[in-house]
């Protein structure tokens, strides 16, 4: 017997099977994040840096508020926010078959994504990266940033 919901459509019964949710663990998410860092670094090196050179803008990164540091940080956050909102996954998550979902089954909203990717990850990084280690020890493999935004990462 197949478990799930049954629907009748034009004299046919269609059974929708319910698959158990597989939460993505620490190492799978870690490798996806490293791939994302490679993507963001490539965007900065292939697009942002040449634009700075073209307009003869300073590329001196002596402080965190230098123009190049600000623009590369904006690129970093835009990548994660836009990819997560539009596709529920970044390129790294796509390669590893992972997806960000709302714990209540709702579509991800801009507010949810901003809380997860900007505020939640800032807090997770601020406390010596301990917020990311939550993934390894929590039941639903949620980092601190996931718990703040009520999200988690699953295998597709």
UniProtKB/TrEMBL annotation:
InterPro entries: Pra-immunoreactive, RDD. PANTHER family: LMO1584 PROTEIN, PROLINE-RICH ANTIGEN HOMOLOG-RELATED. One of its GO terms (cellular component) is plasma membrane. This is Putative RDD family membrane protein YckC. It comes from Anoxybacteroides tepidamans. It is a multi-pass membrane protein. The keyword Metal-binding does not apply. It is found in: Cell membrane. Residues 23-149 form the RDD domain. Keywords: Cell membrane, Membrane, Transmembrane, Transmembrane helix. The chain crosses the membrane at residues 30-52, 64-82, 118-137.
């Amino acid at each position: 017997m197949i478990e799930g919901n049954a629907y009748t459509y034009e004299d046919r019964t269609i059974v929708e099977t319910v698959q158990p949710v597989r939460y993505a663990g620490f190492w799978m998410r870690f490798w996806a994040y490293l791939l994302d860092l490679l993507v963001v670094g490539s965007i900065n090196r292939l697009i942002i840096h040449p634009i700075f050179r073209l307009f003869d803008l300073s590329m001196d990164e002596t402080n965190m508020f230098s123009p190049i540091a600000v623009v590369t940080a904006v690129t970093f956050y835009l990548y994660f926010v836009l990819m997560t909102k539009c596709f529920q996954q970044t390129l790294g998550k796509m390669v590893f078959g992972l997806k960000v979902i709302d714990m209540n089954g709702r579509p991800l909203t801009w507010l949810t994504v901003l809380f997860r990717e900007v505020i939640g990850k800032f807090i997770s990084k601020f406390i010596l990266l301990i917020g990311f280690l939550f993934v390894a020890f929590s039941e639903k493999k949620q980092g601190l940033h996931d718990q703040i935004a009520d999200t988690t990462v699953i295998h597709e």
